[in-house]
Amino acid sequence: MATSLLVTPSFGAPITPELQIDTSDQTFETLRSNMPQGDRVKFDRLSGAQQQELLIAALDPESTFNAGTGKWKNVKETDSSGAVAAVAQPADLNFGQMAATKRKTDSHKKSWKMFGITYASVEARMTYQYNGKTVTSINSCGGFYTNLIPLRTIQSIPSQYFESKKTKAVCEITWHVTKSGGIQEGKAVQGLRVSGKGVRIGYWDYDA
């Protein structure tokens, strides 16, 4: 299930000392049914023990901040970015301005996989216009997330701003993850910075 907002069970360590993992048949089927078809095929080919391991990882926030270590040695954490550029044609620009101004979407995404199946991801995405020197406008700044077992409430708070006389622009997302009863499990910040040349020049993720 992908939703416009950006995720994972959580970035930060659980606030509760111990997390009760619900591995009931109903939760198991929720995990499977929310997978894209391609991942569902992969999941069905896993052994019963591997399926159970993936279910536990999807339910436990610890799997995202301790990926690749200890009991989460089979969890792979990856960073990726994407960009699509096109000539912008706002109604209030003349022909010369349209030719010089371009519109682009840049993103920074983190994903968590086990056995080749993505069970959680978070993405900060910014659409903006630039002219080779400055970022002329920020059209949108938002978060997107994938969470196969929607047992948590995920809130994203976007912040966008210019830097250095508009030669740079920033899109930053603050994530709040809470479980049933309103208990906060984690808080994290994710963002990216772009230049007036239409180039992503920085990105970050950290627990808050």
SSE layout:
Layout: E1 2-5, H1 25-33, H2 37-45, H3 48-59, H4 62-65, E2 75-87, H5 95-100, E3 102-114, E4 117-130, E5 135-147, E6 152-163, E7 168-179, E8 183-195, E9 200-207
Antiparallel strand pairs: 1-5, 2-3, 3-4, 4-5, 6-7, 7-8, 8-9
Shape: elongated
Rg, Cα atoms, Å = 19 Å
Q: Tell me how many strands there are.
A: 9
The proportion of residues in beta strands is: over 45%
Count of alpha and pi helical runs: 5
The low-pLDDT segments are 1-21
Major β-sheet strand ordering: 1-5-4-3-2
Commentary on this structure:
- Residues 1-21 have low confidence and may be disordered.
- Strand 7 and strand 8 form a beta hairpin.
- Helix content is 19%, strand content 49%.
- It is elongated.
- It has one domain.
- The chain has a five-stranded antiparallel sheet. A four-stranded antiparallel sheet has the order 6-7-8-9, with no helix packed on it.
- It has 208 residues and is an alpha+beta fold.
- The protein is built from five helices and nine strands.
Key words describing this protein structure:
single chain, alpha+beta, 208 residues
Question: What would you say about this model in short?
Answer:
This protein is an alpha+beta fold. 19% of the residues lie in helices and 49% in strands.
